[in-house]
Specification:
The chain is an alpha/beta fold and about 250 residues long. The protein contains seven helices and seven strands, in the order βαββαβαβαβααβα. The chain has a seven-stranded parallel β-sheet, sandwiched between helices. β4, α3 and β5 form a beta-alpha-beta unit. α1 crosses α6, α2 runs parallel beside α3 and α3 runs parallel beside α4.
């Protein structure tokens, strides 16, 4: 039986992905900053462990408790929407600590076991903002674009050890709690000088032509984790697929 460790499982993509892998017969280690076992099905194949990807000691303790894993899914992330001019640099750094450095730290921590066994898969969840420029998402896009470059390079680096590295690029999912893992409100990042610019963008967000569901992302992560063709990128959701095809 294979084991997957997924970060950021308290809601959204991570929670759905954990349930999906469990439904496929895998052993699942679902991690979150504040463990809530009740969010997931009761099963001997599911363990919930505490994890803060921005803390080295937390990463070490979680991986020691997890034991050997076959797949790491780096899903934990922080969203930020707003004018870059109005976004405090302290918050930009917070976004990078989770979305970029947290992913790198988790990946670096699991590479030794994958390399030694000459097997294993790292799946990094980014965003469709990496597929086409989107306004009011400059800091968030930067944090995810960094992981796109990191993943592409690392895939070449670890191929020599039979370790696969993949990208999943979710589209827009209005039902996810995109900005809830932060203490900065969207309203605070849209100053009056940007109001007329932002209004039609938020109106479009409210009535998107195409949307991505949590199930779309879970299925894409599953495909990425099991792919042996060498494919690097897996857009998730109809809007992300359309952007990928257009780029």
């Amino acid at each position: 039986m294979k084991t997957v460790l997924i970060t950021g499982c308290s809601s959204g993509y991570g929670l759905e992905t954990a349930c999906y892998f469990h439904s496929q017969g895998w052993s699942v280690i679902a991690t979150m900053r504040t463990p809530r076992q009740e969010l997931l099905p009761k099963s001997e194949r599911i363990r919930v462990l505490p994890l803060d990807v921005t803390e080295a000691e937390s990463i070490k303790a979680t991986l020691e408790a997890a034991g050997p894993i076959d797949v790491l899914v780096n899903n934990a992330g922080i969203g930020v929407v707003g004018a870059f001019e109005a976004t405090p640099m302290a918050h930009v750094r917070k976004v990078f600590e989770t979305n970029t450095f947290g992913v790198m730290a988790m990946t670096q921590a699991v590479i030794p076991q994958f390399r030694t066994r000459r097997s294993g898969v790292v799946v990094n969840v980014t965003s469709s903002v990496t597929l086409a420029p989107m306004p009011l998402a400059a800091a968030y896009t930067a944090s995810k674009m960094a992981i796109e470059g990191f993943t592409g390079s690392l895939a070449h680096e670890l191929e020599a050890f039979d370790v696969r590295v993949k990208l999943v690029e979710p589209g827009y999912a209005p039902t996810t709690r995109f900005t809830e893992n932060t203490n900065v409100r969207v309203e605070d990042l849209i100053p009056e000088t940007y109001a007329s610019f932002a209004a039609p963008i938020f109106a479009a967000f409210a009535k998107p032509a195409l949307v991505t569901t949590e199930a779309d992302v879970a299925e894409a992560v599953w495909q990425a984790a099991n792919d042996t063709t060498g494919q690097l990128r897996f857009p998730a959701g109809p809007d992300a697929v359309a952007l990928a095809q257009a780029s």
